[in-house]
């Protein structure tokens, strides 16, 4: 990503409004699963992973799948995260800030909540943007199932 011009499609996907929406979907997934405030690293990690097509296609069909076994079976996920996490986190951060400034996401303690009815339900749209949103929602529900987010980041090969 770094050092090259973004395509028109990438500019559309990586704009702050869309990256904000992807973060919102991750927080919504977390809130649905855990009925709690979403830790900030979960929202960012889920968004970073959701933006990567190779990770989206490898996601399991159910959140009951164990993360450690899934990572063992999908070594390419660790490689993709190692190569892309820092650059994609730099793209996600402005979106997260946009969502906070727009009062779509709210900071509560060290976590995030979605303002009720601030974002409409996921509707049909461009295939890739819908897939990214669905993946972020799933990842928001699934990533914390293994334990602490620091454990998850370690398993993914990413430094916090």
Q: How many DSSP-defined strands? A: 3
> How would you sum up the global shape?
globular
Average of per-residue pLDDT values: 90
Q: What fraction, in percent, of the residue positions are helical? A: 55-70%
- Rounded to the nearest angstrom, the distance between the terminal CA atoms is 20 Å
> What's the gyration radius in Å?
15 Å
Tell me the β content.
5-15%
Instruction: Give unreliable regions as ranges.
Output: none
Strand pairing plus helix content: what structural class? mainly alpha
Biggest sheet, spatial arrangement of strands: 1-3-2
The arrangement of helices and strands along the chain is HHEHHHHEEHH
Tally of helical runs: 8
Give a short account of the largest sheet. Answer: 3 strands, antiparallel
InterPro entries: ABC-3C_MC3 (IPR045390)
Pfam families: MC3
Protein name: Three component ABC system middle component
Organism: Streptomyces althioticus subsp. attaecolombicae
Summary keywords:
single chain, about 160 residues, mainly alpha, 8 helices, 3 strands, about 60% helix, ABC-3C_MC3, Three component ABC system middle component
């Amino acid at each position: 990503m770094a050092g090259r011009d973004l395509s028109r499609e990438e500019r559309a996907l990586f704009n702050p409004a869309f990256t904000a929406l992807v973060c919102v979907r991750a927080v919504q997934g977390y809130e649905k699963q855990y009925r709690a405030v979403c830790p900030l690293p979960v929202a960012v990690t889920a968004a970073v992973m959701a933006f990567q097509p190779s990770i989206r296609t490898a996601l399991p069909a159910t959140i009951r799948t164990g993360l450690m076994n899934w990572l063992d079976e999908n070594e390419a996920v660790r490689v993709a995260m190692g190569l892309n996490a820092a650059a994609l986190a730099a793209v996600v951060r402005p979106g997260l800030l946009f969502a906070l400034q727009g009062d779509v996401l709210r900071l509560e303690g060290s976590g995030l909540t979605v303002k009720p009815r601030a974002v409409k339900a996921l509707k049909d749209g461009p295939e890739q943007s819908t897939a990214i949103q669905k993946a972020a929602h799933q990842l928001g529900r699934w990533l914390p199932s293994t334990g602490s987010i620091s454990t998850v980041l370690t398993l993914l090969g990413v430094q916090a």
